[in-house]
Amino acid sequence: MTSSVQRKRIRKSPDDRRAEIVEAAATVALTEGLECITLRRIAEQLDVRPGLISHYFPAVEDLVAEAFGSAATAELETLLPADPPDGSPLNHLARFFARTTGPAYDDMSRLWLNARHLSRYRPVLRERVLGQESLWRGRLTAVVRAGVDQGQFRTEDAQLAAVLILVVIDGLASHANTGLGNHPPSVTRLAAATAERELGLPDGALAPTS
Amino acid sequence: MTSSVQRKRIRKSPDDRRAEIVEAAATVALTEGLECITLRRIAEQLDVRPGLISHYFPAVEDLVAEAFGSAATAELETLLPADPPDGSPLNHLARFFARTTGPAYDDMSRLWLNARHLSRYRPVLRERVLGQESLWRGRLTAVVRAGVDQGQFRTEDAQLAAVLILVVIDGLASHANTGLGNHPPSVTRLAAATAERELGLPDGALAPTS
DNA sequence: TTGCTTATTGGTCGCACACTCAATAGCATC
DNA sequence: GATGCTATTGAGTGTGCGACCAATAAGCAA
């Protein structure tokens, strides 16, 4: 008959709970960074006990990888949906470029930086990052290829062009990350020009001239 | 008369000790990452007690910033010496490009990634990163400007061109970091072509055609 | 040689972390 | 309403971290 107050327990199906945990972790990853994914932090956010997180993810590293994968997949689906909605490849690419160089992409670009760095120490995360890179590259390559097929783009190697675009975007993001921040639009314009040239597009076709 | 064995103490001048500590921390930063700069780790490497490190750096964060600054400055001095040795701006730039996209730059490129990410949480480090960015940008801009003056390069805005080159290099490094690793030389070539175009150089002037 | 300054130590504190596991209570099923 | 399965808890372990500080010895100056 100890006076200890017992905690109200809410019991959920393993699938639901797992999904909840991953979602919470993905949110924390995007807003605070992957290293803030701790048992305590996630448990607090879900109002459960740390032990429960451990129960579903015996090793935190697995949860970290899962969270990154979840966030990256969701973001990619927004940027370049698998089943292309209406619009030409040029439209899709222009939107992709505009979004990934815009402020709405800040969190995700930070997360990429974060994940790439951390993946040096965490093998499980590393695999996920490689997987996502390949996914993003594939998706973008498909768009480029479609554009070539429709005569909108002209390039020798679609995949190579896609990688170049990703490299340039990552470079911009990497620089922006410190907060030199929003480099003058001129840099973004120059980066766009690089992509435009590679795809045989006229100046300003991908992003508005500043 | 306790039987505790007393440690042999080696007493050095504050300046020497400080320099020693920063150097050790810079090495750790380059090889293991900035988060491995801990009182215990650095103390162990120098064969002193953790308290001593605290004595010189009451806040570890300051040591981290110092270590990054030291490593970055040393690297820049190697890549783009302040007092240019013999060689034309084109030579200097070509060497800079070759080195920063080569394997010898791996550690430093990882460190940049590391520092940019960490600077999100550590204000002191952040300031250092911004300072180094400005330093690198300035140094590279000077080279570009010299090349323009000598008629080797042709570009409207030297600083803008310099930033674009840095962005492309960072993008390559960021990608390479995960270990997709050494992307095919073709990507590097494409990146070089971007810089060449921006500087009004013929194809292959900056880096050998693959 | 003696004395004094101070660089260095050793010990300790409090905190946050991941991980473990027996006990327990929520809930689907009958 | 009773039963059984298991999702969830509570309590605890051990590790590594930054920070603090009184005591101490190294080595310079007198």
UniProtKB/TrEMBL annotation, chains A, B:
Organism domain of life: Bacteria
Name of this chain's protein: TetR family transcriptional regulator
Keyword terms, alphabetized: DNA-binding, Repressor, Transcription, Transcription regulation
GO molecular function terms attached to this record: DNA-binding transcription factor activity; transcription cis-regulatory region binding
Any single Pfam family the record assigns to this protein: TetR_N
InterPro entries from the UniProt entry: BetI_C, Homeodomain-like_sf, HTH-type_TetR-like_transc_reg, HTH_TetR, Tet_transcr_reg_TetR-rel_C_sf
Start-end of DNA-binding region: 38-57
Ranges for domain HTH tetR-type: 15-75
